[in-house]
TrEMBL record:
The gene is LOC110767329. PANTHER family: OSMOTIC STRESS POTASSIUM TRANSPORTER, POTASSIUM TRANSPORTER 10. It is a multi-pass membrane protein. Residues 48-510 form the K+ potassium transporter integral membrane domain. Belongs to the HAK/KUP transporter (TC 2.A.72.3) family. GO terms for molecular function: potassium ion transmembrane transporter activity. Potassium transporter. This is Potassium transporter. The keyword S-adenosyl-L-methionine does not apply. The chain crosses the membrane at residues 82-103, 168-190, 210-228, 240-261, 318-338, 358-389, 410-429, 435-461, 468-488, 494-510. It comes from Prunus avium. Pfam families: K_trans. GO terms for cellular component: plasma membrane. Its main location: membrane. Keywords: Ion transport, Membrane, Potassium, Potassium transport, Transmembrane, Transmembrane helix, Transport.
Length: 511
């Protein structure tokens, strides 16, 4: 802001030296322009797709380390149970990760910004539903969507009038946004814990046997170093992230192909949706509860959306469809093929299935990938807190920009709080199962919030026909509602942790 500009014309833009609390749309304008510059050529898009692997997909990519153990913590009773679980994993990745998030939700970014707050900010520019004072006169100019008026009898117009005419609905909408955001913060605490603990725990699977306490200590040391490094930014070593994650995806995909060929090619039957139906018919209460572990295969999709501001949407979509998605399918299929022959190795299934000759290189890459995945969730948490600041939904905290050329921020107070909570969770639970239950609870709740917000975006922003909205709502709510009912069964087995964390942050943010 120059000295000659009237502060009143800037709405919520505060004239501070560090400009810590700019409205999200002003920040988004910078990143929107940045994205436009990045789309200048196909080669640039492919380069950015490669770079996005290290920032966006680290969290989602490390889920094969712990999914099957959290699905069958008490062992595999029958091969058909494993086949059905794999089928549910395949279609969860397809419907939620690919169709919902990568192909649909990522397009609903707020001028480049992603996350629940970004969806809320986007909706607030198309209907007068704001309950926080951050209206900015440049909103209409900044938005990337049409501002044309609704037809009086249209479904969108009716929905808009309904929202604007009920203050209670507006407050409920804000509460949902805050709940979703608090759950993302909870995921930012739980994901580093389970990722690093699962990666380090590989040393205790089949090659060497050390006490679990030593594994926990090593994991805690890695986490402490990770959080201390945040203050220096990721620019100096961030160039390593994409090669590490790409190598990780290629390794798990290649090992998956090897295991399918060596142990059981019939596992590919799981690509038939018939086995999803069979899984639910046969599972009973135990099978239903196992969904809490299966849904960890899509852990990281909200982080994906929150980190989308760093890259053009097309680059993010290319990286997932060409690299992440096929490699994840091969990895899970390969693990399942191995477990068909050795069902008693469900704990540490990933490490048991690695060929002896490449065990240590894969272990090293797995540990590095877990660190990158943790970095992605921490970065997403920082971005979310910054968005909350912009909307006036969080106490004033210091925001440090660690790079002049990239959107890299560091929030000291939040960093140390995350570190303390993450170490407490790791040292307190000491095992993947309970941390997995906690992470599953956080993930499914924020997914439901995103679905509700997306329904409104499709109606008010995209002006979709009501039939398309209904199809989207039915498909996503059926899958996510089923997962939600499953994680409720595990609230007393670790699922209470993100609820406690969310309540604490919710009180602060809502107040």
């Amino acid at each position: 802001m120059t000295e000659n500009e009237d502060p009143e014309k800037k709405g919520g833009v505060w004239a501070l030296d560090q400009q810590l609390d700019q409205p999200m749309d002003e920040e988004a304008k910078k990143f929107s322009n940045m994205s436009e510059d990045k789309k200048c050529s196909s080669i640039t898009v492919l380069q950015l797709a490669f770079q996005s692997l290290g920032v966006v997909y680290g969290d989602l990519g490390t889920s094969p380390l712990y999914v099957f153990y959290n699905t069958f913590p008490y062992g595999i009773d029958e091969p058909d149970d494993l086949l059905g679980a794999l089928s549910v994993v395949i279609y969860s990745l397809t419907l939620i990760a690919l169709l919902k998030y990568v192909l649909i939700v990522c397009r609903a970014n707020d001028n480049g910004q992603g996350g629940t707050f970004a969806l809320y900010s986007l909706l607030c520019r198309h209907a007068k539903i704001k309950t926080v004072p951050n209206q900015d006169q440049s909103d209409e100019e900044l938005t990337t969507y049409s501002r044309s008026t609704f037809g009086e009898q249209s479904f969108a117009a009716s929905t808009k009038r309904w929202l604007e005419g009920h203050a209670l609905i507006q407050n409920v909408l804000l509460i949902l946004v805050l709940i979703g955001s608090c759950m993302v913060i909870g995921d930012g605490i739980l994901t580093p814990a389970i990722s690093v603990l699962s990666a380090v725990g590989g040393i205790n699977c089949c090659r060497y046997h050390i006490s679990n306490d030593i594994v926990v200590v090593v994991a805690v040391v890695i986490l402490v170093i990770l959080f201390i490094m945040q203050q220096f930014g990721t620019q100096k070593f961030g160039w390593l992230f994409a090669p590490i994650v790409l190598l990780w995806f290629l390794l798990i995909g290649g090992i998956g192909i090897f295991n399918i060929w060596k142990y059981d090619t019939s596992i590919l039957r799981a690509f038939s949706p018939v086995y999803v139906i069979a899984f639910f018919r046969k599972g009973g209460i135990d099978g239903w509860a196992s969904l809490g572990g299966i849904m960890l295969c899509i852990n990281g999709t909200e982080t994906l959306f929150a980190d989308v501001s760093h890259f053009p949407v097309l680059s993010v979509q290319i990286a997932f469809t060409l690299v992440a998605f096929p490699c994840l399918l091969l990895a899970y299929s390969g693990q399942a093929a191995y477990l068909m022959k050795y069902p008693h190795h469900v704990f540490g299934a990933f490490y048991y299935s690695i060929p002896e000759s490449i065990y240590w290189p894969v272990f090293s890459v797995a540990t590095a990938a877990a660190i990158v995945a943790s970095q992605a969730t921490i970065t997403a948490t920082f971005s979310l807190i910054q968005q909350a600041l912009a909307l006036g939904c969080f106490p004033r905290v210091k925001v440090v920009y660690t790079s002049r050329s990239h959107h890299q921020i560091y929030i000291p107070d939040i960093n140390w709080i995350l570190m303390i909570l993450c170490i407490s969770v790791t040292a307190g639970f000491k095992n993947q199962s309970q941390i997995g239950n906690a992470a599953g609870t956080a993930v499914v709740i924020v997914m439901l919030v995103t679905t509700f917000l997306m329904i409104l975006v499709m109606i008010l922003v995209w002006r979709c026909h009501w039939t398309l909205v209904l199809i989207f709502a039915c498909l996503t709510l059926v899958v996510e509602g089923t997962y939600f009912s499953a994680v409720l069964l595990k609230v007393n087995q670790g699922g209470w942790v993100p609820l406690v964390i969310a309540v604490a942050f919710f009180i602060v943010m809502y107040g």
